[in-house]
Task: inverse folding
């Protein structure tokens, strides 16, 4: 009989990697994808749980990339190869199948924008149709665009000798600029670019602030009591409530979530043990494949949810099932193959 331990160990084996896995960080990913799934299939009125889940992903990504690039100083060639093996193969298959289906069955004209999507430019080109109104289940790729653009920006920062060992300041400046741009577009909507709410310069604040704060914490030895990250996480969650101040999601949430994820190591043992529960860790390890493929069920199954109470649960199970198959048959084998040979 296969034990859950062996399942987790096998799932977390990706070949050579820049960082060792940390159990509670996998659980943090699991929490994030759980928020996205619940928001899609059992939406909570007045609470943007899906965006909260994506931002939980972003702050973790910023922290890890900052560690890889500015502390461990992983060579850029290795960095790019690892990001490619992590993100691109399964994304290529997902996008190609969706666009092929669109072409064959006349679902949309969006397949004509295939290369914009493939190269993570779809939030910018073409400006119409809006990414959420393409007639295809690809609206969620906006978050992948943001990740890839930030990976490029963070990696280019390593080429600037002026900022070596001081990368936290340009990172925080970029994050602050994103927050400021949010304010300007909110206060003066006439100057906002078309569909700016999905563009990197607007939504990268969580990732950038987290990357910068990671270096602040490390280089200045910031220590906090264990209760404080729990408090900031709760306050961050409130930022996505409809009753929260209008500025909370783009001003307060990046600061609160960046602080929380960078101080998960200060949490009481009971809390980190909960985050490290094997089912939650597995959900986190599978999260990328689940995130990609769940959009099919969300897009085409959403009309059924209101009329059939069990539909949401069935769609969640199907999303996880297809994501797990994608992970074991595509994402992880290809990633392991490329990482071991690169």
Result:
């Amino acid at each position: 009989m296969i034990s859950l331990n062996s399942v987790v160990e096998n799932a977390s084996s990706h070949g050579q990697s820049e960082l060792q896995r940390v159990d509670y960080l996998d659980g943090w990913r699991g929490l994030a994808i759980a928020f996205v799934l619940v928001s899609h299939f059992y939406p909570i009125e007045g609470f943007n749980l899906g965006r909260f889940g994506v931002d939980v992903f972003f702050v973790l990504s910023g922290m890890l990339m900052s560690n890889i690039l500015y502390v461990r100083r992983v060579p850029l060639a290795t960095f790019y190869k690892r990001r490619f093996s992590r993100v691109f193969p399964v994304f290529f298959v997902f996008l190609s199948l969706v666009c092929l289906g669109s072409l064959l069955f006349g679902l949309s004209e969006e397949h004509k924008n295939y290369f914009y999507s493939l190269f993570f430019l779809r939030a910018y080109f073409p400006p119409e149709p809006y990414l959420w109104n393409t007639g295809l289940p690809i609206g969620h790729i906006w978050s992948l665009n943001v990740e890839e653009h930030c990976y490029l920006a963070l990696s280019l920062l390593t080429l600037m000798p002026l900022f070596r060992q001081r990368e936290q300041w340009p990172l925080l400046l970029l994050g602050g600029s994103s927050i400021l741009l949010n304010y300007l577009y909110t206060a003066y909507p006439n100057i906002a670019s078309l569909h700016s709410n999905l563009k990197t310069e607007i939504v990268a604040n969580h990732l950038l602030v987290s990357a910068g704060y990671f270096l602040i914490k490390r280089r200045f030895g910031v220590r906090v009591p264990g209760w404080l990250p729990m408090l900031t996480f709760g306050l961050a969650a409130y930022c996505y409530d409809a009753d929260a101040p209008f500025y909370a999601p783009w001003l307060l949430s990046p600061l609160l979530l960046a602080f929380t994820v960078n101080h998960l190591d200060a949490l009481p043992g009971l809390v980190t043990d909960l985050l490290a529960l094997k089912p939650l860790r597995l959900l986190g390890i599978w999260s990328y494949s689940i995130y990609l493929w769940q959009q099919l069920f969300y897009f085409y199954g959403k009309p059924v949810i209101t009329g059939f109470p069990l539909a949401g649960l069935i769609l969640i199970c199907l999303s996880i099932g297809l994501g797990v198959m994608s992970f074991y048959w595509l994402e992880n084998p290809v990633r392991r193959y490329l990482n071991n040979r690169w």
